[in-house]
Design brief:
The complex is a heterodimer of chains A (322) and B (256).
Chain A lengths: L3 E14 L5 E15 L4 E5 L6 H8 L7 E6 L2 E2 L4 H7 E5 L11 H11 L4 H14 L15 H13 L5 E5 L7 H16 L3 E6 L2 H7 L2 E6 L2 E6 L1 H6 L4 E9 L3 H8 L4 E8 L4 E8 L5 H7 L4 E8 L3 H11 L1
Parallel strand pairs in A: 3-8, 3-9, 6-7, 7-8
Antiparallel strand pairs in A: 1-2, 1-4, 4-5, 9-10, 11-13, 11-14, 12-13
Helix pairs in contact in A: 4-5
Chain B lengths: L1 H18 L2 H25 L4 H32 L2 H5 L5 H15 L1 H15 L8 H28 L4 H14 L14 H5 L2 H14 L4 H32 L6
Classes of the chains: A alpha/beta (322), B mainly alpha (256).
Chain lengths: 322, 256
């Protein structure tokens, strides 16, 4: 039996538009997601913005009711036994929000200790331990409004672990954090798994998922399109090769033409400050460089590199195929 | 014991949070001055013995009501905005035990308004401050605050479900001031309005404070304030549990 068991979980948001003639709208954010997380496992949920990651997590932590399907955490149903689920889980959202800004980190942590019924004699020791773990010892009496984004994120992690939960949900915990801070956070997340906790992590950063996750589920348009270890997912693109082209001023038409080149399976463009990084995935054995450059006629081209596929390429291939 | 501890810790936490707000400091400095001025002019227009302190106390309790009404709803909106509403809903503690200390805190910080209205009245307008039953006055104020805070709990539940419940709190401020006798005696209201006064704890809380200050027996009024407060507590707990479930269904706990 898994610690987290999700079966055909779905969530539809109902909203309306218009002022005088109101029209009902339905958005299917999650459409029948199923997965299981074993004890002590770190499971990653990867997907583009709007794929349904946060909605899935919010159903699992009892903040949203599922429209259909079911989910259990440590055997407790998230819809019918929310209080039992809440006692067993910790959760951390990414971003600046979710803290009482005018008060100190210590005030925040003490308050959440009370909300989670941490015994008074335990509170001091637990808070000190966690402040040490997340590197905020000595800064706990400062008001949160003066904290950097990385410090807030670390405080979020400390808050989520106050009651020593066996299951932890982390929703993009390193988003917006500087590289050094993000590396420290990843080390903290790794230490949670070493301590025996079961973790569900969502992230946009593939190297993060590759480094941390035991298994990964790729979610797009509200459905899980692939599931396996990072190595399993990479094997799915083992027969592909990747060409990265640094370009200046490539038009949308030119990018579309690249998609028609023989052997090309997907094209993704990352807009940078002055340049575009065009990432082309194609079947091995095709001569690609010249045909691709021909289609980019009119754009200035900088560096070109051909490399082996990574987890990110596996992800791009899966998401692009939908 | 755990429940009392949670209530006390939550109350201290929210009082601390509210008094750290610059906006709070500005409003609690200037609002009592406006209320004391209003009270003074009303008393002069009435020109009867004992009226000055009578209206001054009413003006002070108006400050507590404003603080509770806008504080309770505003605090939940603020929590939604800063992303902490989801965190407290997802905590294992009963939701009513999370929100009650918040509404009691907003009513409690309103006591500052009562104190400073009386002080401004005494300093600027010469309103006498002589208490007929000092001990009962000290008892009546916290009981009235409790009644107001528990009424705030019922109102706060609507803010959990609706993202834009501000219209409700704006709409309620002045009608409640009138029907609970904070501005004019309840006896002067039309007969159809009196049943509304009777079911609002501030009516009896205000009576108790006035009886304790001006002479009379405030104990019956204190009992009614406490009894109505208990009813609000039960109603607030039921509404909060149900509205929190509805908010999970309608996805209104977060801004997006």
């Amino acid at each position: 039996m898994g610690v987290v068991e999700v079966e055909e979980l779905a969530r539809t948001y109902r909203t309306s538009t218009g002022v005088l003639r109101r029209r009902a709208l339905e958005v299917e954010a999650v459409r029948g997601v199923s997965f299981e997380i074993a004890e002590g496992e770190l499971f990653g949920l990867l997907g583009p913005n709007g794929a349904g990651k946060t909605t899935t997590i919010k159903m699992l932590i009892t903040l949203l009711l599922p429209t259909s399907g079911s989910a259990r955490v440590l055997g407790f149903d998230v819809a019918r036994q929310p209080r039992e689920v809440r006692r067993s889980i910790g959760y951390v959202f990414g971003g600046d929000r979710g803290l009482y800004e005018r008060l100190s980190a210590l005030d925040n942590l003490r308050y959440f200790c009370e909300l989670y019924s941490v015994e008074p004699r335990e509170q001091k020791r637990r808070i000190a331990e966690l402040l040490e773990l997340v590197g905020l010892a000595g800064r706990e009496r400062e008001r949160v409004e003066g904290y950097s984004r990385g410090m807030r994120q670390r405080l979020h992690i400390a808050r989520g672990l106050l009651h020593d939960p066996p299951v932890v949900f982390l929703d993009e915990p390193t988003i917006g954090v500087d590289p050094v801070g993000a590396r420290e956070l990843r080390a903290t997340i790794a230490s949670l798994v070493q301590a025996g906790k079961t973790v569900l992590l969502t992230t946009h950063y593939m190297f993060e998922a590759d480094a941390l996750c035991d298994r990964i589920g790729v979610i797009t348009h509200g459905r899980i399109v692939a599931e396996g270890t990072p190595a399993d997912l990479k094997r799915g693109v083992a027969d592909l090769t990747v060409v990265e082209i640094e370009a200046f001023g490539a038009s949308e038409q030119a990018i579309d033409r690249l998609r028609g080149v023989d052997g090309v399976s997907s094209v993704a463009v990352e807009e940078r400050e002055q340049t575009q990084l065009i990432r082309v995935q194609a079947a091995r054995g095709h001569e690609l460089t010249q045909p691709l450059l021909r289609e980019l006629d009119g754009a200035r081209v900088g560096r070109i590199a051909v490399r082996e596929p990574t987890l990110e390429d596996a992800y791009v291939a899966l998401v692009s195929a939908e | 014991m755990k429940t009392l501890r949670l209530l006390a810790a939550g109350w201290v936490f929210h009082v601390k949070g509210l008094t750290m707000s610059g906006f709070f400091l500005v409003t609690t400095t200037f609002l009592p001055l406006i209320l004391a001025t209003t009270a003074s002019f009303m008393a002069r227009a009435g020109a009867r013995q004992g009226t000055l302190l009578y209206v001054s106390l009413g003006a002070g309790v108006m400050g507590i009501w404003s603080s509770t009404l806008f504080g309770s709803g505003g605090a939940i909106q603020w929590q939604r905005w800063q992303g902490t509403l989801e965190l407290v809903v997802a905590a294992p503690a009963r939701f009513v035990l999370v929100i009650l200390p918040l509404t009691l805190a907003t009513a409690s910080v309103g006591v500052y308004s009562l104190a400073s209205t009386l002080l401004w009245g005494w300093l600027v307008f010469g309103v006498p401050f002589h208490l007929a039953h000092p001990f009962l006055f000290v008892l009546a104020v916290p009981v009235a605050v409790l009644g107001l805070g528990l009424l705030g709990l019922v109102l706060a539940s609507t803010f959990v479900l609706y993202r834009y419940a501000n219209a409700l709190s704006n709409m309620l401020e002045f009608p409640v001031l009138f029907v609970t006798g904070l501005l004019v005696p309840v006896a002067l209201l039309p007969s159809w309005a009196r049943p509304v006064s009777w079911v609002l704890a501030p009516t009896w809380g205000m009576n108790a404070i006035r009886q304790a200050a001006l002479g009379g027996s405030p104990l019956d009024d204190l009992g009614l304030t406490a009894a109505l407060g208990a009813c609000y507590l039960v109603l607030g707990a039921i509404l909060l549990e149900n509205f929190a479930r509805l908010a999970r269904d309608r996805a209104t706990l977060a801004l997006t």
